[in-house]
Amino acid sequence: MPAVPGRSEHWFAHDGQISKAPVRALTLAALAPVRGAHLWDIGGGSGAVAVEWCLAGGSATSIEALPARAANIRANAQRFGLQQRLQVLQGKAPDALQPQDGAPPLPTPQAVFVGGGFDAALFAWLQAQLPPGCRLVVNAVTLQTQALLTQLHGQHGGQLLKIDIASAAPLGRMHGWQAARTLLQWCWQRGGG
């Protein structure tokens, strides 16, 4: 298995809801994992970002609303031997991140990744909850969420990155470029841009 972020999708159990390898590599670079740091992975999908964060020496809490996807995240944690460092919560943010009756509080994150379900209400909640220095990285493919990220970038700063990736694919007897969905990535740090 490669030792760099952006491992091939075939290493992960998924239903198609997975950040593709090049996007995942860019996402991990934006998250900037450090040994011992904790990640909240919101809208976990397959959990691939959380897995790769943990493989870099951190720990993670992945939040996923759909039961089958939460099961995939657990399977991926087990496959990579990360059951002790990757916690899976089934539910939607921010409710799933709230203290639950009798459960210990979640570890404080040094970074948060939102791969799905981002909206203005979630940002407002995160803005109120995240500790100084915490890094937020949001990936968006829908026009509506991309418009929100553009607005938030204008209001709060940070870095805005447009990611267009194309791969060679058969085109008749030749090959041409097959474009992936355009992705907008916003990286913002609490207490700084």
Automatic annotation (TrEMBL):
Keyword Ribonucleoprotein belongs to the record: no
Annotated GO MF terms: protein methyltransferase activity
One annotated GO biological process: cobalamin biosynthetic process
Alphabetical keyword list: Cobalamin biosynthesis, Methyltransferase, S-adenosyl-L-methionine, Transferase
Pathway field: Cofactor biosynthesis; adenosylcobalamin biosynthesis
Protein name (Swiss-Prot/TrEMBL): Precorrin-6Y C5,15-methyltransferase (Decarboxylating) subunit CbiT
Organism for this UniProt entry: Vandammella animalimorsus
Chain's gene name: cbiT
